[in-house]
Design a protein that fits this description.
Layout (H helix, E strand, L loop, with lengths): L2 H6 L2 E9 L4 H14 L1 E2 L5 E2 L2 E3 L6 E3 L4 H19 L5 H13 L1 E2 L2 E2 L26 E3 H17 L4 H17 L1 E3 L2 E3 L10 E3 L22 H17 L2 H14 L8 E3 L11 E3 L17 H18 L2 H14 L3 E2 L4 E2 L9 E2 H16 L6 H14 L5 H10 L15 E2 L4 H5 L6 E2 L3 E3 L2 E3 H18 E4 L2 E4 L5 E2 L3 E5 L6 E6 L4 E5 L10 E4 L2 E3 L2 E3 L2 E4 L7 E5 L4 E8 L7 E8 L2 E6 L7 E3 L13 E9 L7
Parallel strand pairs: 22-26
Antiparallel strand pairs: 1-36, 2-3, 4-5, 4-20, 5-17, 6-7, 8-11, 9-10, 12-13, 14-15, 16-18, 19-35, 21-22, 23-24, 24-25, 25-31, 26-30, 27-28, 27-31, 29-30, 32-33, 33-34
Length: about 625
């Protein structure tokens, strides 16, 4: 490991006895296993973008999206290390970081011509165009690389190297953008992966006419990462060129031609995963409210970028647009468990990428003062965010044993493209599945874009559990967390009990979930009862001393509710859900297919006393706050 690794991830460790309940630090440690396990050091530290389990011999496969998504995993590595302190795959992370930096040239992040990777310039054959042996820079890849650099700079601010690279990419993004009036955009003007910029320049610069263009079926997706990174850099540096470009791209993404409409379940004339659109119902101007009809993750990339721009500029209209889009999105599925139909009317599944998007949107909208979405975040984190992470090797092995041999031609024969070793499952455990239903992951497979986003969703939630400001600590989610000012021990969902061990905090603000009846909550500080003092949805506990123990106790009950997904489509189904507080403990009907990975196997969570365990807790010296 290099000096960056040693310095950026320094911290303190100590033993503690805590409830054996959801601990995002443990999920981060497992994620690191999967992040490093799917990187191929022999091939320029490229990821294996695809992992297939529903086949007799599971395999990992390189793909043209490897280069674009490599920076995602780099950013995730940093976040997961800060959560848990694991040094697993340290050498792989260090090697990958050096490799990614070597791909920055002439203000862009490049997918270089490489005879060892003939697949590098084919993404969706029906949309590839005329492929050539030419260096390519995917604009989304540049945005993701810029985001990784911002994370490294925040952890290593004294090193001028990061600012130099960041400014190079900002200049490069401005150089290749197409400027029109008060907005700018990146065209789908290359070949291979959508929105590739060839070394020789754009082949065409036509302005897109609608959202569902290109091989991914989205236009705004390929602007959003750049908006987010540029806005974050402006917040850090005050760079006016970055802010100007972020604003122009935001105005482009808000054009009405990219929004509005409702899903068309017939999908007439549409191929792949992209659903068609029907007009908005009477009296609804969906194009002004961020309504969408297909491929939610693609829209969420843009919405997250626009939200970051709204936050740094205090743009009320952009903030309103994102808020209304978010609230509209939560009507597609079962928001109480965080399952959203990302392809309504098409394949009716939850994409792993969208899990991280929804966590980020809920937290950052709340941070921006646009609403209080902590309950949305809480149910998402406790339920589908952690369920779609692949944690059970035994289930994946059983699925593989029950699956057929690969079809002829299914596995590429190009040397170096596929890994068929016996440890595929072990190496990729901790990855995020590409798609899920509310009850299962049918024919499980991984797209590493989902691993990048899903693991970052873990970090967003973990960072937001507890925030420190001087001698005041704000606790937003009642989940296990170790920090400098206080530790949180959550007994949920077994018991309605949370214990907070104060270290340096003089004052606590504790967000209490909506299902807790305030008059039934009991508060004690170091064994002495206190009358609860409320500030909105937060409980205020002050005049604390180091070593004080704050205990919250409240009733927790099982409740049931029914929710319908994919209504008025062939996949319509009504699920009966059983909850303990915010946690789903049972759901039916189940998916009994032998090649499906079952979710919500949670009978043990219905016990009334939380088991305890001894763990090594880690508190990093610094955290990433400007994600």
């Amino acid at each position: 490991m290099d000096e960056f690794f040693k310095q950026a991830y320094a911290g303190k460790r100590y033993q503690a006895s805590i409830p054996d309940t959801l601990d995002l630090a443990e999920r981060a440690a497992l994620a690191i296993n999967g992040l490093g396990g799917v990187i191929d050091p022999a091939l320029h530290y490229q990821m294996y973008f695809l992992v297939r389990y529903a086949v007799r011999t599971p395999y990992m496969r390189h793909h043209s999206a490897d280069t674009t998504c490599d920076p995602k995993l780099a950013e995730s590595f940093a976040m997961m290390r800060l959560m848990c302190g694991s040094d697993q795959h340290a050498e792989i992370e260090t090697g990958q970081r050096a490799e990614l930096i070597s791909r920055i040239e002439d203000g862009l992040y490049w997918n270089y011509v490489d005879p060892a990777r003939p697949w590098r310039n084919s993404y969706n054959p029906a949309f590839d165009g005329e492929r050539k042996d030419e260096d390519l820079s995917n604009v989304t890849g540049v945005g993701r690389m810029l985001r990784a650099l911002l994370a490294w700079r925040e952890l290593d601010a004294a090193n001028p190297r990061w600012e130099k690279l960041i400014r190079e990419l900002v200049e490069g993004l401005r150089r290749i953008a197409i400027f029109r009036e008060d907005y700018a955009y990146y065209p789908d003007g290359g070949f291979g992966e959508p929105f590739n910029y060839p070394r020789s320049g754009w082949l065409r610069t036509d302005e897109p006419k609608g959202e569902a263009e290109g091989g991914e079926g989205s236009v705004v997706c390929y602007q959003g990462h750049q908006i987010q990174a540029l806005s974050r850099w402006y917040a850090m540096s005050g760079d006016p060129a970055a802010l100007d470009l972020a604003g122009r791209l935001t105005r482009f993404c808000m054009l009405g031609k990219f929004w509005g409409g409702v899903p068309d379940p017939t999908r007439k004339g549409v191929v792949g995963h992209v659903a068609g659109a029907l007009p908005d119902p009477a009296c609804v101007a969906g194009h002004e409210q961020g309504h969408w009809y297909s491929h939610f993750h693609a829209r969420a990339v843009a919405l997250r970028g626009m939200l970051e721009y709204a936050r740094v500029t205090n743009d009320a209209r952009v903030l309103e647009f994102v808020r209304r889009a978010y609230e509209y999105t939560m009507t597609f599925g079962i928001p109480r468990i965080g399952w959203v139909n990302c392809y309504p009317g098409a394949i009716n599944v939850m994409e792993g990428c969208a899990l991280g998007d929804l966590v980020a949107l809920g937290i950052r909208l709340t941070d921006a003062g646009a609403g209080d979405y902590w309950d949305d975040v809480d149910v998402l984190v406790r339920n589908h965010l952690v369920e779609q992470q692949l944690t059970r090797a035994d289930l994946l092995e059983r699925i593989a044993a029950r699956s057929p041999e690969p079809k002829p031609g299914e596995i590429p024969t190009t040397p170096g493209q596929v890994y068929l070793g016996p440890d595929v499952i072990a190496r990729s455990l901790g990855n995020y599945a590409g798609h899920s239903s509310p009850v299962s992951i049918p024919n499980p497979w991984v797209m590493q874009c989902c691993t990048g986003n899903g693991t970052q969703g873990l970090y967003y939630a973990w960072e937001a559990i507890l925030r420190e400001n001087g001698d005041t600590t704000q606790i937003n989610l009642l989940l296990n967390r170790a920090a400098k000012s206080a530790d949180v021990d959550s007994y949920l969902p077994y018991e309605g009990k949370v214990v907070i061990h104060s270290k340096t905090a003089h004052r606590l603000f504790i967000r209490v979930p909506v299902w807790v009846q305030r008059h039934e909550l009991r508060l004690c500080v170091s064994g002495q009862p206190r009358e609860p003092l409320w500030a909105g949805n937060f409980l205020l506990v002050d005049e604390l001393k180091p070593g004080d123990q704050v205990v919250l106790v409240f009733p927790i009950q099982e409740t049931t509710a029914s929710y319908t997904v994919a209504s008025r489509t062939q996949d319509e189904c009504t699920y009966r859900c059983t909850f303990r507080g915010s946690t789903l403990v049972d759901i039916s009907p189940r998916d009994d297919s032998p090649t499906s990975y079952p979710l919500y196997l949670r009978d043990h969570l219905r016990a009334e006393q939380a088991p305890m365990k001894t763990v090594t807790r880690f508190v990093a010296d610094r955290n990433l706050l400007h994600w």
